[in-house]
Write a structure and sequence with these properties.
By secondary structure, the chain is mainly α. The protein has six helices and no strands. The termini are far apart. It is globular and about 40 Å long. The protein has one domain: Leucine-rich Repeat Variant (Alpha Horseshoe).
């Protein structure tokens, strides 16, 4: 899928759930960044939070999404099961680890990972 099409689909999805993106993009061709998706994890609409977790999981690279790990761990405590499921899936995809929906297990792993230099 080409970049412009992915941007349009992302914008349509976010627009469908009421997520305001007009002021966050400098141009129509710019794709949402990790920071945009992290911010969407705090959206009042659960559909936007679910989409954000799913998008972060699709990055597939822990280092590209490093600043999303803590917010995804927090999302494991979301009141909506759909958001928790997507957050768990994203964490598994990004890290190759699996602590289910246990935020304490994930946080312990993440802290250990960072203390060990984060694989850098």
């Amino acid at each position: 899928m080409n970049r412009a099409r992915r941007v349009i689909i992302s914008l349509l999805i976010m627009g469908a759930v009421g997520f305001a993106v007009t002021s966050t993009f400098r141009s129509e061709a710019e794709e949402p960044t990790v920071d945009h998706w992290v911010a969407a994890l705090k959206n009042e609409k659960w559909e936007a939070r679910k989409e954000a977790a799913e998008a972060l999981g699709k990055l597939g690279d822990l280092y590209a999404a490093e600043n999303a790990i803590d917010p995804l761990i927090t999302a494991l405590q979301d009141q909506k099961a759909e958001v928790r499921d997507e957050a768990e899936g994203a964490l598994v995809k990004l890290t190759g680890e699996n602590y289910g929906q246990d935020p304490k297990g994930w946080q312990k792993w993440w802290n250990t990972f960072l203390e060990g230099g984060g694989g850098y």
